[in-house]
Amino acid sequence: MAPVLGCIADDYTGATDLSAMLVRSGMRVIQVFGARAWQRRTGESAAQSSATVSFREVDAIVVALKSRSIPSNQAVEQSLEALRFLRQLGVQRFFFKYCSTFDSTEQGNIGPVADALADELQAESVLFCPAFPENGRSVYRGHLFVGDQLLSDSGMRQHPLNPMTDSNLVRVLQAQSNRNVGYLPRNSLLPQSSHCRYWIADAIEDEDLRHVAQVAGQHLFLTGGSAIARYWAEQCWGDRLTSQRLTTQFDFSSMFSSESRAIVLAGSCSDATREQIAAFRVGYPCYEMSGDSEDVASEANAIIRWCELQWQPSMSPPQPLIVCSGATPARVQAIRDRWGTDAARRVEEIFALVARQLFDRGLQRLVVAGGETAGAVIDALEIEAIRIGPEIAPGVPWVATLAEPRRLLVLKSGNFGDREFFFKALEKPT
Predict the structure, then answer these.
(1) 3-class secondary structure, 286
(2) Same domain, yes or no, for 147 and 231?
(3) Does residue 51 carry a pLDDT above 50?
(4) 191 and 261 fall within a common domain
(5) Is 247 within the bounds of a domain?
(6) What integer is the mean pLDDT of 190-208?
(7) Can you give the chain as a three-state secondary structure string?
(8) pLDDT tops 60 at residue 172
(9) Which pLDDT band holds residue 243 (cuts at 50, 70, 90)?
(10) CA–CA dist 145, 151 (Å, integer)
């Protein structure tokens, strides 16, 4: 049986967040990293390669892209490739996932990608529902709130790649799209006649998400954060999913060993991640990137030497470590002052080199914080697909590589998780 839902996510941690929500609904999910890369490595069509990763034994395929902050034309091209890949697999309904904080610039990429996907699918009215009440993201009268703050007053205002200075999502999306944009009030239905084609859906609690899912019940195409995808799945395939919730799942706990090495690579500079770093470094060694090395290889090698020093044979079991690029606002600013617009790319390259070398040395458990960092690490490790496991925090599951040797990974969006998240992410999965 072909998968019933195909998803396209604009970054790697967002894709994992989405996958976790679909698993929570009862879906069997596999996440792949880039449709073009997958087909190139297998040398087969999507339908043929499906046997390799058991695509036809799952309910949903999530294609993870790194399209959030690249030029809009490239984001559109990659997203359309992913859509065609999913259609080759026989998928009938489609979801476009972006961040619950609507991360984008004045030019995109949410609007241009949505336009291209909607045109390809001939979708007339399209709902946009980024709300994730469980994680403090809500939309009211078309305005996005983070907790009790407007988006423009939150830490997202200083986002290093996509600073969000406007909370009015109708205005934000309209600037990016060639379709007219309106907003859908709570508990409302789409108007029978309107000049609007796109609708920002209000939602401040989970019951609102259930209502939006009902409104989109017959739609071919939906967009939003991960939370609405769960309710849309339950709305569209509830009977099928209920019978699968008791199905035996892959045993993630069997992959855990307290004797194995574990490390956190924190590239995110969000307020939430900085708090998590502060809590974790009280009990475990922490390496802060200096940004002073002239080349990325030198800094990566220095980090590897530091890790090996902490993991001396006399240290048994080996203690978890953390490497971070922005433990404090002052450190973040210092790196920006040193490298300007090249700072983010350098950090990603350093983490990619570190992850590759640590995996070559047999690292078994890896936690990555930050969407762009996760993208760089996954690409460096040449991981093609992952199996989604139980959640550690809302939207953040354990995942396992499909290829041998199996590894346990955690890919965390920068804003997700409470202060103790890194401790939880290194415990045995349950």
Answers:
(1) strand
(2) yes
(3) no
(4) no
(5) no
(6) 95
(7) CCCCEEEEECCHHHHHHHHHHHHHHCCCEEEEECHHHHHHHHCCCHHHHCCCCCHHHCCEEEEECCCCCCCHHHHHHHHHHHHHHHHHCCCCEEEEECCCCCCCCCCCCHHHHHHHHHHHHCCCCEEEECCEHHHCEEEECCEEEECCEEHHHCHHHHCCCCCCCCCEHHHHHHHHCCCCEEEECCCCCCCCCCCCCEEEECECCHHHHHHHHHHCCCCCEEEECHHHHHHHHHHHHHHHHHCCCCCCCCCHHHHCCCCCCEEEEECCCCHHHHHHHHHHCCCCCEEECCCCCCCHHHHHHHHHHHHHHHCCCCCCCCCCEEEECCCCHHHHHHHHHHHHHHHHHHHHHHHHHHHHHHHHCCCCEEEEECHHHHHHHHHHHCCCEEEEEEEEECCEEEEEECCCCCCEEEEECCCCCCCCHHHHHCCCCC
(8) yes
(9) low
(10) 5
Task: Yes or no: say if 95 and 6 are a contact pair by the CB < 8 Å rule.
Answer: yes
The number of folded domains in the chain is 2
- Which CATH number characterizes residue 289's domain? 3.40.980.20
When mean pLDDT is compared across 156-160, 205-209, 295-299, the lowest value belongs to 156-160
Supply the CATH number for residue 200's domain.
3.40.50.10840
Type of residue numbered 189: L
Same domain, 298 and 166: no
Residue 420 has which token pair?
A: 């103790």
pLDDT of 156 strictly over 90: no
Q: Are residues 53 and 122 in the same domain?
A: yes
Report the predicted TM-score, pTM, of the whole model to 2 decimal places: 0.84
Same domain for 206 and 273? no
Of 197, 223, 242, the domain-final residue: 242
For residue 25, the surrounding DSSP H or E stretch is helix 12-25
Same domain? 394 vs 282: yes
Domain closes at, from 186, 211, 242 = 242
Please give the residue range of the domain that contains residue 70: 5-242
Q: Is residue 92 part of a domain?
A: yes
In-domain check, residue 219: yes
Residue corresponding to tokens 């009977």: 239
Percent of the residues in the chain that have a pLDDT greater than 70, as a whole number:
92
User: pLDDT tens across 120-146, in order?
Assistant: 999 999 999 999 999 999 999 999 999
Residue 140 shares a structural domain with residue 219: yes
Kindly state whether residue 430 falls inside one of the protein's structural domains: no
Give me the mean pLDDT over the 99-105 stretch.
86
The yes-or-no verdict on residue 52 having pLDDT over 70 is: no
